[in-house]
Amino acid sequence: MPKPGAPPLQGDLLQGTLDMLILQSLILGPAHGHSIAHNIERHSREVLQVEHGSLYPALHRLETRGWITGFWGTSENNRRAKYYRLTPAGKKQLTTQTSRWAELVQAVNRVLRPAE
Amino acid sequence: MPKPGAPPLQGDLLQGTLDMLILQSLILGPAHGHSIAHNIERHSREVLQVEHGSLYPALHRLETRGWITGFWGTSENNRRAKYYRLTPAGKKQLTTQTSRWAELVQAVNRVLRPAE
DNA sequence: GTCCCTCACCTCGCTACGCGAGGTTCGGGA
DNA sequence: TCCCGAACCTCGCGTAGCGAGGTGAGGGAC
């Protein structure tokens, strides 16, 4: 039974934005999963929380779709880590998604502010 | 099998925002389902599309949670229509959700624009 | 009177995503 | 040696949006 007074615009993430945020995190160069998550959390000033149960499925999803490619390497802490790099298709996808995002935000805000 | 090159920030709606948009539509007074959908589409300049399969489940969900109450009436076209009215709890919920929405949008945008 | 269009309601089953819980491996400090 | 924490992973759940597939009734056209 779901609590009746529960989820206020669910979770810590707006569903569908995680892929975009990951792609964006890779724009400056390859990174491994853990650091991508930290990067998103840091840049959002801890507002967005990237859980493991969302992160890894998302990375695999993106790799399957060909937006990113993974390779094994060593982290700054000398630990085995899987790095991901943006593919050209991924870069293109990122621009598509960000403009779509902007469009949707604008649309929602227009409904929210009937003034003007 | 899902098409590999398919969904760009899924659907026509950002998941989780529909409830908020419906509540907002009722802020000026009761309305029936069909007109709520049209209202959202119009104010968003047709960017947001509210499908029947999303609308009615959402209305029932909101009613179950006590944010809105429904009553039968007659539409402008002299047809049987179910009107919904915002409850005090729903009004409160709306302000909660809109501020949460603003917070999330700001957070995502900060990740998207590492500049500044 | 009948036909049909449109308004307005509804349900079902699918898919996708986020998430919590659970788990593994291994480097390095105490 | 012990344990912490980095870094990876999977599974099952809940929930939301959506397409398809309906139902019933008002009202104009003929």
Note the topology.
2 copies of one chain form a homodimer.
Chain A: H1 18-25, E1 31-32, H2 33-43, H3 52-65, E2 68-74, E3 80-86, H4 88-112
Antiparallel strand pairs in A: 1-3, 2-3
Chain B binds a DNA duplex (30 and 30 nucleotides) through helix 3 and strand 3.
Question: How would you portray this structure in words?
Answer:
The structure is a homodimer of 116-residue chains. Chain A is globular, with a radius of gyration of 16 Å. With 116 residues, chain A is of the alpha+beta class. Chain A has a three-stranded antiparallel β-sheet with strand order 1-3-2. Helix content of chain A is 50%, strand content 14%. The N terminus of chain A is likely disordered. At the A-B interface, helix 1 and helix 4 of A face helix 1 and helix 4 of B.
Concise description?
Chain A is of the alpha+beta class. The first copy, chain A, contains 4 helices and 3 strands, in the order H-E-H-H-E-E-H.
Structural class of chain A, by secondary structure, is alpha+beta
Estimated share of beta-strand residues of chain A: 5-15%
pLDDT averaged over residues of chain A: 91
The greatest inter-chain interface is formed by: A-B, 41 and 41 residues
Q: Could you give the distance between the termini of chain A? A: 42 Å
How many β-strand runs of chain A?
3
Helix fraction of chain A? 40-55%
Counted by DSSP, the helix tally of chain A is: 4
Shape summary of chain A: globular
The multimeric state of the shown protein is homodimer
Gyration radius of chain A, to the nearest Å? Answer: 16 Å
What can be said about the biggest beta sheet of chain A?
A: 3 strands, antiparallel
Biggest sheet: strand arrangement of chain A? 1-3-2
Uncertain runs of chain A are 1-8
Please trace the helix and strand order of chain A, writing H or E for each element. Answer: HEHHEEH
